[in-house]
């Protein structure tokens, strides 16, 4: 095994309730992301998959209290970094794509301007160069008529097009080592979903990106990911290669989840 | 009469248009014919904007159709006065996608279930309570749940209450609009098993609206594939899924990922995205996106033609090319 790009090590934590008490939500979560691989973190509502991803970026809700664990990224514990150092990692070294791209984009600026802004922030250079880079990134994610689309606002984009623009921003305008995708195709139509997943896989392969795909959709996982982390109720249930998880699941929960996804015997 | 085929729902030329600015019109549903027998499930599938939910709403007059006929149990629904619609709602009921939005948060489960029993069946309090207890048990909950508010229930339990409420009036037809789309997969299986059991017990007819092709395969007898307001292909599920005739159906089926290791799909790719339903051009709805399109495709709207018994497709190209898999 090579040295992982990122290792979540014994992460545990709780939400602080209004009465001051703590509700445990993550228990000893540990997994590793191998460089150049797409790793899926799968689980149902409340499994802790999104909370874990947000914690990697330091974006966890303020009510979340970490009680144990480390997140090692290129040898550094992200949880020990001061906020200023974390800001240098976020976006530059690790970037994120969210579920609802139209909500993640700023409605009052054109899509191209938002990509160009991020480009100047990350790489400097002239406004002209940043705009050109933004248009080129949109073209690379196969948005037709990229120059015209760059001048449009998020509400003029369909859900699928907006997600392409978000991927352009997170994976191309930013040049991260690690890309985290939180349910990037949930809510999109199945034909669009398939196109977006193909684009994600292609970009990761081309650029040697390491990706962490948070999803509840095992169909997407089977096709696009190399490694799988199965989570349930705040715990890692099982980890393994996609082939092992789908053909030789070891844990009863994994087997139940697979059966439910396939709607076979268990559901009948 | 048990077992004899009996048509619960029939639509003929059902259409819904909305006027939009500039004297143009948005065609949401464009001439749809459906037939559904007692004890059977017809799945309406299609992507966002295909018009499937508009059909569901037109069938029960939550949306007024612009043209066409709807017959439920032999009754001309399209001709009913608004005042007699309560009679319709004793025969046809809806179950919605989001049980959070469709249950009143300030009503207990008891109040939710008593309401239709009081309004439609005019039962007294005692008989309402007895029936409400029976209903919660029918959907796999207990009378203890009657005192709960929706926020005290899980998503799956809320959907069970949505189903119990629909069953309260003992309808013949349930219109299920994406009933499992907001649920986790483990809960989805339970709700589908419940719906299948209820259908067997009560010989219910289901008009099942979904975009989840696995669910269609699991629960439906027949399927109608919708694109841009019209049906492009319909027939028995096993036949349509095994031998899809229309390019859109092929694109849809080949785009759905399967949760199995080592499955490779040969995708039929459509260009671009679903076009605007405002002032659609004549000809096949798929022109411009279809890789198999011929010059003749944009001339006139191709009709649904039988390709095998009960299996209809609106694509003359695949019909004559003889390239069906």
From TrEMBL, chain B:
Protein family membership: Belongs to the ABC transporter superfamily.
Residue ranges occupied by any ABC transporter domain in the UniProt entry: 9-253
Q: Pfam families annotated for this entry? A: ABC_tran, oligo_HPY
Q: Which UniProt keywords apply?
A: ATP-binding, Nucleotide-binding, Transport
> Which SMART domains did the record assign?
AAA
- Topology with respect to the bilayer: Peripheral membrane protein
Q: Which SUPFAM superfamilies match?
A: P-loop containing nucleoside triphosphate hydrolases
User: Which Gene3D superfamilies does UniProt cross-reference here?
Assistant: P-loop containing nucleotide triphosphate hydrolases
Q: Name the chain's protein.
A: Peptide ABC transporter substrate-binding protein
The listed locations are: Cell inner membrane
């Amino acid at each position: 095994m090579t040295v992982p790009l990122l290792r979540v090590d014994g992460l545990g934590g709780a939400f602080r309730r209004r009465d001051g008490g703590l509700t445990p939500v993550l228990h000893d979560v540990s997994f590793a992301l191998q460089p150049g691989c797409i790793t899926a973190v799968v689980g149902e509502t409340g499994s802790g998959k999104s909370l874990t991803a947000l914690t990697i970026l330091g974006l966890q809700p303020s009510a979340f209290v970490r009680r144990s664990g480390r997140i090692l990224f290129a040898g550094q514990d992200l949880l020990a970094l001061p906020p200023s150092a974390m800001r240098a990692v976020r976006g530059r070294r690790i970037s994120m794509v969210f579920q609802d791209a139209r909500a993640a984009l700023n409605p009052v600026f054109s899509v191209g301007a938002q990509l160009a802004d991020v480009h100047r922030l990350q790489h400097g250079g002239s406004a002209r160069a940043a705009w050109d880079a933004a248009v080129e990134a949109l073209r690379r994610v196969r948005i037709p008529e990229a120059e015209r689309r760059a001048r449009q606002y998020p509400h003029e984009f369909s859900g699928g097009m907006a997600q392409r623009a978000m991927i352009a921003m997170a994976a191309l305008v930013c040049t991260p080592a690690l890309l985290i995708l939180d349910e990037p195709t949930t809510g999109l139509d199945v034909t669009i979903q398939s196109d977006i997943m193909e684009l994600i896989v292609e970009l990761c392969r081309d650029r040697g990106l390491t990706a962490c795909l948070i999803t509840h959709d095992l169909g997407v996982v089977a096709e696009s990911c190399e490694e799988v982390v199965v989570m349930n109720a705040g715990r890692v249930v099982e980890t393994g290669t996609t082939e092992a998880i789908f053909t030789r699941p070891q844990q009863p929960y994994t087997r139940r989840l697979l059966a439910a996804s396939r709607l076979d015997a268990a559901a009948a | 009469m048990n077992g004899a085929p009996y048509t619960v729902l029939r639509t003929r030329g059902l259409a819904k248009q909305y006027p939009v600015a500039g004297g143009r019109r948005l065609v949401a549903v464009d001439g749809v014919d459906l037939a559904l027998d007692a004890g059977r499930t017809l799945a309406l599938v299609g992507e966002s904007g295909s018009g499937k939910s508009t059909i569901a709403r037109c069938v029960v007059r939550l949306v007024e159709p612009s043209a066409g006929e709807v017959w439920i149990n032999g009754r001309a629904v399209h001709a009913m006065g608004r005042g007699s619609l309560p009679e319709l709602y004793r025969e046809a009921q809806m179950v919605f996608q989001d049980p959070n939005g469709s249950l009143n948060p300030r009503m207990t489960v008891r109040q939710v279930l008593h309401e239709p029993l009081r309004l439609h069946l005019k039962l007294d309090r005692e008989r309402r309570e007895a029936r409400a207890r029976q209903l919660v048990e029918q959907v796999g909950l207990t009378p203890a749940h009657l005192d709960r508010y929706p926020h005290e229930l899980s998503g799956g339990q809320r959907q069970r209450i949505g189903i119990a409420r629909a069953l309260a009036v003992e309808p013949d037809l349930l219109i299920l609009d994406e009933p499992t789309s907001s649920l986790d997969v483990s809960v989805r299986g339970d709700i589908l098993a419940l719906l299948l059991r209820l259908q067997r017990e009560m010989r219910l007819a289901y008009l099942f609206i979904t975009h989840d092709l696995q669910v269609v395969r699991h629960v439906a007898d027949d399927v109608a594939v919708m694109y841009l307001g019209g049906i492009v292909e319909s027939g028995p599920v096993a036949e349509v899924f095994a031998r899809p005739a229309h390019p859109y159906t092929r694109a849809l089926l080949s785009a759905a990922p399967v949760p199995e290791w080592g499955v490779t799909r040969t995708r039929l790719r459509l260009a671009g995205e679903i076009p605007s339903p405002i002032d659609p051009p004549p000809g096949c709805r798929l022109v411009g996106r279809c890789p198999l399109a011929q010059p003749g495709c944009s001339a006139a709207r191709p009709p649904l033609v039988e390709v095998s018994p009960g299996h209809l497709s609106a694509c003359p190209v695949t019909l004559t090319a003889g390239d069906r898999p």
